[in-house]
Design brief:
Chain lengths: 458, 1023
């Protein structure tokens, strides 16, 4: 029997685990974190101001026009929603499949999901012409007639899909946090801390009854979240697939979008965790190279899946015999936006191929660079789908280009400010690795070479 | 006033100011309402309050404000309602408008005293219902904020003068100054042709009193035509052309469908002989230097340089005469060009001549317009006259019975006037209806000579280039503010009724003449105003007061004379043809007018600036057009800035590659580059008039050697249609006349089935048919739509970003070779699809199907996701990216808003509604009259002004309606039928009368799908 590699290195005791993971929450931040935080915060504030100006002045500040009615905001929305996928996949799907390696990365991946969905959720709200009337998209009894919503519109499905996903993700994440909050509460040295974490831990006592309920709820929520992993991006893809626009009107979109989402999500998890490992060196024992390698394998696999989707789109366009469809795809590859298409293909399909080599999968610098490329590539994938399909459709007289402006750039980069600000705060206030889930991963009572884990080795 | 409490009956006081009767308070008392929507200074600028109330009416409530929430605005009802005005109901007045060479009979729609929309006077013998884009747009110049509000006395030396140094004056002061000056005698009046005998008589009497002389010059000159007519036939007239009787029209650079003489009338007539259902269909052959609207509508088009026009005409004449058994003199033969010299395919001229001969008496050869103003302009017209006489067209397709006799501009007058000024014989110069400083090249020196005149008076409505240098500006007001009567064509009198009281303190030119004469002590008539004079004169002809009112209601009297005999061609005419050898090497210049800008007089009308040029689709700029080959050879791309140099005059202008242009020609449009008085038009493009050459007492607009030098600069051109090819898709279906007679329509029909049932319509089912065969692309519909539906303009910057707002656009596609392409025009508006893709995707149901088949847009409900636009295969939806309604609020511009149509706020999608307000209006009228709607009751704005009636709107549930019949035509097809959006708008295939094999691009008439006839494809359920 091949011995499995240990998921936690360094022969930790339970106490050491608790100490390691609680350290960022209980110590003062270092210079690196402060620098990063204030940069991110500055970007976030810039983002808020930009949004404010756009909402007050008009969508015309962005590059959206006739015929390209959707641009940076929708592209970036789909980008962030996609990012969110890895978290739920890791925490829920892998939980149900009893993939024990998930325990070290699940918390941060889930946090990333929640923050990515928050970041994404801003866009549908502000991309409308009259954001102050966005609440009209919510079906509720009202005094305007009552006027109902159009249940046939994919945008409405989007409202439900994204809000459901956000709710379930947050609940799932929070429930997982409860025992850890209790740990921090119990270790708290100040009254204020005790109070805040006491409230957050919802009166957790660590009794058998607590644990029993907790396990049940966690299991149920995992079961609830799993279909959402598939449904959210499927429905987001309907925004495109249900329309009649050549380049959007394709049945491959749901699986293609889900694969792309998982791909980009893992890309972002790798980006963040490589940084977390640098920032909190003690976490290296928990988020090991083995963890990273597994995720890189998933990146490569999903990268090839989207590569397959790119190819099959071309095949179907040709096979359909529809001239508009054919033109839309030829235009993607060789039209005015060829550079966007080939950036996408290079970043998403070609670059991840380096992970065939084991040394590359296990090299932190390489995986960091690749994950950045994956993020770039996946943003361009959404750009290619949204903008290049719209800019040349049925009637050649309508053809035009997207009028990219500096506001587009402000919105795109500003959204990273929002995401990073929240993520950096999370690292300092929440236990970034699940203490409760990691502990059972120790080789307790099993044959080990130099086991001292568990309760001190007896 | 002392600040002491006054003992007045009003013991109660609102403020201390009132109590002490401070000067400030007394001033506020002059305004009756403290909360008046008027600006405090408005009382002084002539727009008096009560009149303002009258003008504004309910419209105040409709304009939205520039902030997130629409503020509550007060509306003020009529205190005393004028008898003829019922609030909310429009009044219509017959009127007219003269546009340089073209006269149009109008019906002006007014609401609460504001003119809102113009359409053609349906019974008018010239233009009928049709209008030009300019005529639809001239209503906006009425509300132009840059228009002068009153007379101005420029007291400072012109050279040192800035606009800010002018002094606003009162008419009394102006009249006194002018009268004193007039008494000195030596008056000169420079004006443009003006077809009003009343005005002309008045001018004669006026000048008679002050030993004055009249000088007449037209920017869009017809001088060569008239001179040649005089030589050939004895009288200098502009004859009338009968395109409806011509089966073959050969245009030698005459843009009769766009800018030459009377294009709306011509377009209307031209279309009458172009019915493909008939046995014969007229054919149009165009020889052009720069493609014009006429060239793009030609069945066969050929490129010639301006300097070759005469040689080409002689070549044709030679062959025509040969067919008649005579020939040219050896002298002229020398100048006749051959196919080879012209670069045509061998036998082209012979074929054209043969076709002309075959259609003797039923053909028409035409040359003219400023494109033909070369050194050989008169010779060309003489040859054309000869051709027409030889072909027996004279007296049949060309008659002098209903000539346009009022056009009388002479270049010699300009030179004579300058000479008189030089000789010190002009003490007073009155300039009316002309802007010579702008329209004449600086090199001519006209501008400098104004200094030598003691007093220069202009009647311009703007502080324009000429007014700026004048001593007195006496604004004559907008045509819609003044009375007159025109005789556009001989025997056809048309009244110009004012439809609004002058918005500013302006006074018509005629009234000014009367006043000045009176002030100078030489009264012309006992009548105090021109209106009284006019009424007396006209009443003398039409009869009683009742008949006068009848005339006003009808708007015109008299008809175009029918029949008539052929005028004999003078035997001396041939000897008068003395061709001048062209000395052009390399490129030659052609200055041409465009459909929307022509002479630049309406340059400040934003609707026209943003109206895509029908040929190039460029807005907000003029360009140097070059053929694709020439541009390639010179390494010039669209937007490359080039220096254009003609005999020392030079301009810097961006280049544009124009397919179908002669390789030897560089073209530039007139009417741009305004410098003064028009804020909107200022520095938009360059003034091509600077390149006009004065040679031997004539102005040459074309055929001069031009040096084009590339610079490293680049200007982005705002082109509303970036792609000119149909990419092999079936967008405009096209067939040849021969093919059509064999049953080929060029339409590829698709077998479409749906698993869903169709909507049912118990009442009306609206539909529209657009005949691509009659659409000439004149773009009148675009402006009419803009006027009717309060469509904003966005400016060049935003057109560049693809944000123009037109609800109806005209797509222009080229097919065939770049050097000599065929063109097609296609108006595209909301197709009101049965299976509307926009309706399903709107999350808030802001766009829904009405029970009459309209695709309704609910602005109030729209949140602005723009999903509908993305999902629209026709991309006819327009989004309010900013507060576009803001621009209408600038000064008077909001008064041009149609109160029946919502002004859209920021963040809302908008699109064509099939003029739903007109549908509602007609329904109400029908209900009031206790009858059901009749076919033709409802006319959409675009349909109403279309000169060729290419657009037909009506009820598809009415089997006898015109639109139902159109839908049953075998030429009808659906745009993007295979998408199965099932549009309510159907197009009718274009039929080109040519013997060439067409390169349509799409596999029309292929039978791989079972062809189904019109009835089957009309999928909706009739109930």
């Amino acid at each position: 029997m091949i011995e499995r590699k240990q998921l936690i290195l360094g022969n930790k005791t339970y106490k050491e685990i608790t100490d390691d993971i609680c350290e960022p929450v209980e110590s003062s931040p270092g210079r690196g974190w402060i620098t990063l935080f204030f940069s991110a915060k500055a970007l976030f504030l810039f983002y808020i101001v930009s949004i404010g100006i756009i909402v007050c002045t008009g969508m015309g500040l962005l590059g959206v026009n006739h015929p390209v009615g959707w641009g940076t905001m929708i592209v970036t929305f789909v980008f962030w929603i996609g990012i969110g996928h890895a978290g739920t996949l890791i925490s829920a799907v892998l939980f149900l499949f009893r993939q024990k390696w998930r325990t070290s990365v699940a918390r941060s991946a889930e946090a990333m999901t929640v923050f990515a969905v928050m970041t994404a959720g801003i866009f549908p709200l502000i991309h409308t012409g009259r954001p102050w009337l966005d609440f009209w998209l919510i079906p509720y009894p009202n005094q305007r007639g009552p006027l109902w919503v159009n249940f046939r519109s994919p945008l409405l499905w989007d409202v439900f899909a994204v809000s459901t996903y956000a709710t379930v993700s947050i609940v799932f994440w929070y429930v997982g946090l409860v025992p850890d909050f209790a740990t921090i509460r119990d270790r708290a040295k100040t009254n204020l801390r005790k109070k805040i974490y006491g409230i957050l831990s919802l009166g957790w006592r660590g009794t058998g009854r607590n644990w029993s309920h907790y396990e049940m709820v966690y299991m149920l929520l995992a079961g609830l979240s799993t279909p959402l992993v598939l449904s959210v991006h499927t429905i987001v893809s309907f925004d495109f697939a249900v329309s009649s626009l050549p380049g959007w009107h394709t049945t491959i979109f749901p699986p293609y979008f889900v694969a792309g989402a998982i791909f980009s999500g893992f890309g972002m998890v790798v980006t963040l965790l490589t940084l977390v490992r640098i920032g909190f060196p003690k976490f290296k024992d928990y988020i090991t190279i083995d963890h990273m390698e597994v995720m890189n394998k998933i990146i490569m696999a999903t990268g090839m899946m989207v590569g397959y989707a790119y190819g099959s789109e071309f095949f179907i366009a040709w096979y359909s015999g529809v001239p508009y469809e054919k033109y839309a795809f030829v235009n993607r590859a060789v039209g005015p936006y060829w550079w966007a298409y080939w950036t996408m293909v290079t970043c998403n399909v070609i670059i991840p191929q380096i992970f065939w080599a084991k040394w590359a999968r296990r090299s932190i610098p390489i995986m960091f660079v690749v994950s950045i490329f994956v993020n770039i590539g996946m943003w361009f994938e959404r750009f290619v789908i949204t903008v290049t399909s719209l800019h040349r459709d049925y009637l050649p007289s309508n053809w035009g280009m997207y009028a990219w402006s500096r506001w587009d750039a402000a919105i795109l980069f500003g959204s990273f400010g929002m995401f990073l600000t929240i993520f950096l705060l999370y690292l300092r206030f929440f236990p970034a690795i699940s203490i409760a889930e990691v502990k059972p991963m120790l080789y307790v009572g099993r044959k080990t070479k130099d086991a001292k884990g568990g309760h001190g080795g007896h | 006033m002392e600040n002491t409490p006054v003992d007045t009956p009003n013991q109660y006081w609102k403020s201390l100011d009132e109590k002490y009767q401070t000067p400030e308070f007394l001033k506020t008392l002059e305004n009756e309402f403290a909360s008046s929507p008027l600006k405090s200074e408005d009382g002084q600028d002539g727009l008096a309050r009560r009149q303002f109330m009258k003008l504004m009416g309910a419209s105040v409530a409709l304009s939205a404000a520039a902030c997130v929430r629409r503020p509550v605005q007060k509306i003020i009802p009529y205190n005393k309602r004028p008898a003829e005005i019922i609030p909310d109901l429009p009044n219509y007045y017959a009127s007219s408008w003269f546009d340089g060479t073209q006269g149009l009979g109008l019906v002006v729609k007014t609401r609460e005293g504001r003119p809102l929309f113009v359409s053609g006077n349906a019974e008018h013998p010239l233009n009928g219902r049709g209008l030009s884009a300019r005529a639809s747009a001239h209503i906006l110049s009425l509300y132009d904020p840059d228009r002068l509000k009153g007379p101005i006395f420029n007291s400072v030396n012109p050279k040192k003068r800035r606009n800010s140094l002018r002094a606003d004056a009162k008419w009394e002061q102006i009249d006194a100054k002018v009268a004193a000056q007039l008494k000195k005698g030596d008056v000169a009046l420079l004006t443009a042709s003006y077809p009003s005998e009343h005005t002309q008589n008045l001018i004669s009497s006026f000048l008679g009193k002050f030993s004055g002389k009249k000088y007449v010059w037209d920017t869009m000159t017809t001088e060569s035509l008239r001179e040649a007519q005089k030589i050939s036939y004895g009288s200098a007239v502009v004859p009338s052309y009968h395109f409806d009787k011509s089966l073959l029209t050969v245009s030698l650079d005459a843009d009769f469908l766009g800018t030459y003489l009377s294009p709306v009338h011509f377009t209307r007539n031209f279309n009458l002989s172009r019915n493909p259902e008939g046995k014969k269909m007229a054919k149009l052959i165009s020889f052009h230097s720069v493609p014009s609207l006429t060239a793009l509508n030609a069945d066969d088009g050929y490129q010639v340089a301006a300097s070759q026009q005469l040689g080409l005409a002689l070549g044709l004449l030679q062959r025509v005469l040969a067919g008649k058994g005579s020939g040219l003199t050896a002298e002229l033969k020398k100048f006749a060009l051959t196919d080879e010299q012209l670069g045509f395919e061998n036998g082209t001229l012979t074929t054209v001549a043969k076709q002309l001969l075959e259609n003797s008496g039923e053909s028409l050869v035409m040359a003219g317009g400023i494109q033909c103003e070369t050194a050989n302009a008169i010779n060309l017209q003489l040859v054309v006259n000869w051709l027409n006489s030889a072909l027996g067209n004279e007296g049949k397709t060309i008659t002098a019975q209903s000539s346009y006799q009022s056009l009388e501009g002479k270049t010699a007058d300009i030179f004579e006037l300058m000479k008189q000024i030089d000789d010190g014989k002009v003490k007073t110069l009155i300039i009316h209806d002309l802007n010579p400083v702008y329209s004449l090249p600086t090199s001519l020196g006209f501008e400098k000579r104004l200094d030598k005149v003691e007093m220069v008076i202009t009647t311009s409505n703007w502080m324009d280039e000429t007014s700026y240098l004048a001593n007195v500006v006496a604004p004559a007001g907008h045509p819609m503010e003044n009375w007159n009567e025109f005789e556009f064509a001989k025997g056809v009198h048309t009244i110009q009724q004012p439809t609004v009281r002058p918005l500013g303190d302006t006074r018509s030119f005629e009234d000014s003449l009367l006043m000045w004469a009176q002030a100078a002590g030489s009264e012309i008539t006992p009548e105090k105003t021109f209106f009284e004079l006019l009424k007396k004169k006209v009443s003398g002809t039409v009869g009683s007061e009742a008949e006068w009112f009848e005339y006003l209601q009808k708007g015109f009297r008299g008809q175009v004379a029918e029949g008539g005999s052929a005028r004999g061609l003078s035997s001396a005419a041939a000897s008068q043809i003395q061709p001048v050898e062209s000395k052009v090497e390399g490129l030659e210049l052609v200055i041409f007018p465009t459909v929307h800008m022509t002479d630049g007089s309406l340059a400040n009308v934003s609707w026209l600036q943003e109206l895509p040029d029908p040929v190039s689709k460029i807005v907000w700029d003029n360009v140097l057009t070059l053929s694709p080959k020439t541009a390639k050879d010179m390494g010039i791309k669209d937007g490359t800035v080039v220096t254009v140099e003609v005999n020392g005059a030079s301009l810097k202008v961006p280049a544009y590659i124009q397919p179908g242009q002669s390789n030897k020609v560089a073209g530039i449009a007139l009417g741009y580059g305004r410098q003064a008085g028009m804020e909107l038009a200022k520095n938009v493009g360059v003034n091509a008039a600077q390149l006009i050459q004065a040679i031997d007492g004539k102005f040459q607009y074309a055929g001069q050697s031009v040096k084009v030098t590339k610079t490293s600069e680049k200007i982005e051109l705002a082109i509303t249609q970036g792609h000119n090819s149909m990419e092999g898709r079936q967008i405009v279906a096209e067939s040849t006349f021969k093919g059509y007679k064999d049953g080929k329509t060029g339409i590829h029909r698709h077998q479409i089935f749906s698993i869903w049932g169709q909507h049912k319509y118990d009442g009306h089912k609206w539909g529209m048919s657009i005949d691509l065969n009659t659409c000439t692309g004149c773009s009148a519909c675009m402006v009419a739509c803009q006027s009717e539906n309060n469509i904003p303009v966005v400016g060049k910057k935003y057109v560049l970003q693809g944000r123009e707002m037109h609800w109806i656009r005209i797509d222009r596609y080229y097919s065939g070779s770049e050097a000599s392409p065929d063109a097609v025009f296609q108006p595209v508006l909301c197709q009101h699809c049965e299976n509307a893709p926009c309706e399903t995707v709107c999350p808030v149901l802001a766009t829904v199907h009405s029970d009459e088949g309209l695709n309704d847009m609910v602005y109030n409900r729209c949140v602005g996701t723009r999903y509908c636009s993305n999902n629209c295969p026709y991309k006819v939806r327009r989004f309010n990216w900013f507060y576009y309604d803001g621009h209408h609020r600038k000064e008077n511009l909001h008064m041009a808003l149609n109160p029946e149509v919502t002004v859209r706020t920021r963040g809302v999608m908008e699109k064509c509604t099939f003029c739903v307000q007109r549908i509602k209006d007609s329904k109400n009228t029908a209900r009031d009259e206790n009858r059901s709607l009749k076919d033709g009751d409802i006319k959409t704005a675009c349909e109403e002004v279309c000169p060729t009636s290419a657009i037909t709107f009506g009820d598809l549930n009415d089997k006898d309606s015109k639109v139902s019949q159109m839908f049953a035509s075998q030429r009808q097809y659906t745009l993007l039928e295979e998408v199965n959006a099932a549009p309510r708008v159907r197009y009718m295939a274009k039929i080109r009368n040519t013997d060439r094999a067409m390169s349509n691009g799409h596999h029309g008439d292929e039978k791989h799908a079972p062809s189904h006839d019109a009835k089957d494809s009309n999928k909706e359920t009739h109930t």
